[in-house]
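Severity: low
Component: inverse-folding endpoint
Summary: output formatting inconsistent between runs
Steps to reproduce: submit the following structure tokens with default settings.
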């Protein structure tokens, strides 16, 4: 896999308003360094232990780290000192924990609300009413150290473009509803994270502002690597 070439090609194709998150889960730090050298600054990981290990090994680089996988409340403290965005917020309890540890670290942590949009698979994520309930709660209104920047979703892993498109439209609608009902005039609430290696073009057509690309940059994943503490 020619990482440099893949990044160059992706960047040439992506409209300027769309951010590229390079999903580096299971990939060695050498691969991340290679992508970084070719201008890639935002990286996404789905496991806390792996994210923390890579952050420590690559602390000399000004990488923006995103957590994109399910986060247990008892692990928030490990990433709160450095994580730039948590894309996978799916409960008030988790948001409260993120706020607490962000405050302890004197930081404000960017968050996306993750929605369940895949009709096929059961994946983590909120529905609209659950999200509205969180935002309307008194507890949420007391949070000072989180910044809700928008929404995230994972479409069904299928060949059917129409189905995927429908799911992206659902997420876009959630974003618009939330914006109109709760975040009007709040410029921070602006991101729609959708689209992966197989469906990012569709996602951008449907209004994505953040795409999360792994395989199309780094090649296939070796999940055995994820069980090791060190990735060198
Ligand atoms: C792994 C992963 C991706 C990247 O998937 P690819 O198909 O390899 O691009 C994107 N988003 C999430 C949440 C992931 O877990």
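Observed output (run 2 of 3):
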């Amino acid at each position: 896999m020619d990482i440099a070439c893949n990044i160059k090609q992706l960047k040439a194709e992506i409209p300027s308003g769309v951010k590229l998150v390079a999903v580096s889960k299971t990939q060695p730090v050498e691969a991340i360094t290679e992508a970084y050298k070719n201008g890639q600054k935002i990286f996404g990981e789905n496991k806390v232990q792996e994210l923390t290990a890579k952050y420590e090994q690559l602390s000399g680089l000004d990488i923006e780290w995103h957590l994109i996988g399910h986060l247990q409340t008892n692990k928030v403290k490990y990433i709160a000192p450095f994580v730039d965005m948590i894309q996978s917020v799916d409960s008030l309890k988790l948001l409260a924990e993120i706020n607490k540890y962000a405050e302890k670290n004197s930081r404000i942590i960017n968050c996306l609300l993750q929605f369940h949009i895949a009709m096929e698979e059961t994946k983590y994520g909120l529905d609209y009413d659950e999200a509205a309930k969180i935002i309307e709660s008194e507890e949420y209104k007391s949070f000072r150290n989180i910044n809700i920047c928008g929404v995230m979703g994972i479409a069904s892993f299928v060949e059917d473009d129409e189905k995927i498109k429908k799911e992206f439209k659902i997420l876009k609608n959630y974003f618009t509803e939330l914006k109109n009902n709760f975040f009007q005039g709040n410029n921070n609430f602006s991101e729609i994270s959708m689209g992966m290696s197989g469906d990012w073009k569709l996602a951008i057509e449907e209004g994505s502002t953040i795409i999360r690309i792994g395989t199309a940059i780094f090649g296939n994943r070796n999940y055995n690597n994820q069980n090791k503490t060190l990735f060198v």
